[in-house]
Amino acid sequence: MVNADDMQFYLEECEYGSEVQKPGNVLLDDDGKPKRTGNVWTASAHIVTAIIGSGVLSLAWGVAQLGWIAGVTTLVVFSGITLYTSSLLADCYRSHETGKRNYTYMEAVKNNLGGKMYIACGMVQYANLYGMIIGYTITASISMAAIQKSDCYHKRGHEAPCSVSHNPYMIGLGILEIFLSQIPNFHKLSILSIIAAIMSFGYSSIGVGLALAKVISGNGEKTALTGVEVGIGLSEAEKTWRMFRAFGDIAFAYTYSQILIEIQDTLKAQPPEHKVMKKANTMAIFTTTTFYMMCGCIGYAAFGNNAPGNLLTGFGFYEPFWLVDVANICIVVHLVGAYQVFSQPLFCAFESWAIWMWPNSKFITEEYLISLGGSTKYRLSVNILRLVWRTLFVIVATILSMVMPFFNDILAFLGALGYWPLTVYFPIHMYIAQKKIGSWSLRWIGLQLINFICLLVAVAAACGSIQGLSKDLNAFKPFKVKD
What compartments host this protein (predicted)? Predict the structure, then answer.
């Protein structure tokens, strides 16, 4: 039998790996776990790594569908809502009455809203996380293929048939992620997140710079206050569907709440975690919104109503080809890190469950130390469960990415699936429960109004993305992706 203390210890092992120690060690936090060392900068790096991903590349297309007024307004509104609800969620890290920590998003939901909501949250959160991983695999492969195509266009001309298969790149990325997935836990990802965050600024800056140069040179294309105009080749119905998908793309670009609690759990106990997390939220969202506005607005000004679905791989830019290549390399490096940031909650959930179910199994619990290069100074800790399960996890994600490589519509669907429940619904209802806000009070009405409006946007985005995916599937042959 497994008693409560042992179960807690096993859960901690999943979160902290071999650093977990039984009580009595002086380097422990107030909950008996090894002292957390995170700060506002590492938290901001994790957030930026999670937010500025593939979504930023579709913003010029999104603004083109909505136009200057609705496009800019949507970016600002989503930014404000995300910042507000993220602050509410940060207050849910510790219990209002006991001060007990919630180590994961799901645990916060369970302790504030009960078991049924816990199950519903888990289904949405884990589906969204796995969807994000698939989305990042697709995007990284598109960027890798774009490097090959860029070099081909440079050598053979812009009209050359430079068709490239994405599948080898997806397989290569999958092999790399199998190795990186052996990083034991979230607390070992700080360096990877910082590198990824730097890369995100790099490719965003290149995209903005190239678009700005196009505008300054006078080669910017036609734009409109209301976006892409109905006419030949675009019906009113298709315009509406595109607008719905644009809402989903923009929502996707602000999605990170599903790992906010896990990020907050890396912070030092002093200053109070919720204050540091709110500051990190503000810094990260202000930074990303600035980049989003530049990418979306300058990209739209450069390409007008013909803005590509992916700013750097849609080949609105051909030259300088080497700079486009550098930007796509930055995208790949960033997404390699983001893949791990979104994978860790899934890894931890399964492994903690397995340890709880079979605590005496060496296959599950034993850690084997392997010396690297024959040196006892550099040793790698290997767990058989971690090796087998995480490898299978990456393989399945790679195969699914090869089956459904639809960039914009996948982003819109993921945005619709994850933004409303994880960024809005659960944070608002946890905050209401924790602060005991009375029904029909002015504050309660205001929170529910935000909740309802975001639900309508999510439903519209889901409908638009499903319509787009259905069109893609009609013309798609699995495992034969070339563009």
Answer: Cell membrane
